[in-house]
Amino acid sequence: MELQALTVVRQGRCVLNIPHLEIGNRPTLLLGANGAGKSTLLSLISGRMKPTSGTISATDSIAFVEQQFKPIVGFTCAEYCAYVAWLFGQDRKAAAKNSLSCLEFTNLDHLANQRCENLSGGESSRLAIATALNTGATTLLLDEPSAALDTVNKQHITEIYRKIVDAGQNLVVSTHDSGELQEPFSRVIVLASGTIEFDGDRKEFLELADTEGNSAAQVLARSFRSRRQGYGS
Asked: Coiled coil: which residue ranges (predicted)?
């Protein structure tokens, strides 16, 4: 997947400017403050949004989970998971069968017959991921799936990330929380004011904590280090 000379202009203001970006098969964490352009970038990659200028070349199939995940009221978890897969072109019977496997993958199989609107925040986030998995897409784009979750539920989501990568699927997750920089993420992209400020591996990102300056990437790296030290004290 490759992005070239990508811009998004709103009301005369450029909110995203990406000269060049390639998304390969490395699990990637897209970091940035609220308003940095993370959701806009993922929306462009997924095809939900059109750029003002530039091109996006994608050969992989993509499933995009928006930050405000809103399943259909009245559907059970299994029904909704199967319904979305059917919309993606799966046979109804196959979609229904695979939905149960995806719910099990995300530790939601015990809630297969629970109505979606009765789920907790953590359960709803896992349903969103299960639904994306059931589409059969090779690349999953997840927009702040754990933004409103507590520490325990965030850890559950992280464990699912690892399982997704171990299963051979590509994963791009956006977040404003540098504390989510754990395995399996090996690549970090930092967005600031609609531009890419940093793009490198996890080790290179963490080394920014010891460099002079107060860029968004440096501040995030220091935040991550201080939190790790706090947990270890």
From this structure: none
